[in-house]
Amino acid sequence: MDKGTDAVDRLGKSSVLESIVGKDSLPRGSGIVTRRPLVLKLQTIDDGTREYAEFLHLPRKRFTDFAAVRKEIQDEIDRETGRSKAISSVPIHLSIYSPDVVNLRLIDLPELTKVAVDGQSESIVKGIENVVRSYIEKPNDIILAISPVKKDLASSDAIKISREVYPSGERTFGVLTKIDLVDYGTNAVEILEERSFKLKDPV
């Protein structure tokens, strides 16, 4: 899940996902960058084998340049949505084969937002929420609720929707980013240890 629409992803959602993948391969920028779900499958291969990536929509093409992977993700988003700020529920499927990953499937979802901006339909707010819910409501998936530490967690869209879908919080992991930007006087340890805010619905 996503934290919102920060102008630059400095140790934000993309960085969290890339730290798991081990590759700088996700588009970044301002506003809503992830405008289609990205289903990312990691698969372990033998040591000494050159790592590569494949897209479902390009089944006979192997990518060994991960800057090209990032560009293809952006190009494929644009093919479906145009160069607008619209979103689509049609997923992009990407597989990465590497000796340095574990077998795992990750899904990068569009950023939750509260208001439409220029070039977006007023329905985009509900549209994004519907896309996100369609994935996180699946009972076998783990939810990463990612929020910057400077944000009031009580108003975090990621945590709010996670609680609504799964109030017990047993399959939700909270991820705090941008610790280096925390306001003076804020006790990040209390947040990390859930003393000041709990992921589970208190009701």
Helix-and-strand structural type: alpha/beta
Give the overall average pLDDT. Answer: 80
Strand percentage, roughly? 15-25%
Q: Overall 3D geometry?
A: globular
The H/E string reads HEEEHEEHEHEH
Q: Gyration radius, to the nearest Å?
A: 17 Å
Work out the helix count. Answer: 5
**Number of E-state strands:** 7
| Spatial strand arrangement across the major sheet | 3-2-4-1-5
What is the terminal-to-terminal distance?
Answer: 23 Å
How would you sum up the major sheet?
Answer: 5 strands, mixed
Describe the structure.
- Helix 4 (157-165) links the parallel strand 6 (143-148) and strand 7 (172-177).
- By secondary structure, the protein is of the alpha/beta class.
- It contains five helices and seven strands, in the order H-E-E-E-H-E-E-H-E-H-E-H.
- The protein starts with 12 loop residues before the first helix and ends in an 11-residue tail after the last helix.
- It has helices at residues 13-21, 66-81, 124-136, 157-165, 188-192, and strands at 38-44, 52-55, 58-63, 92-98, 104-108, 143-148, 172-177.
- Mean pLDDT is 80; it is low at 1-11.
- The longest helix is centred in the middle third of the chain and has 16 residues, at 66-81.
- The strands form two sheets. It has a five-stranded mixed beta sheet with strand order 3-2-4-1-5, covered by helices on one side. Strands 6-7 form a two-stranded parallel ribbon.
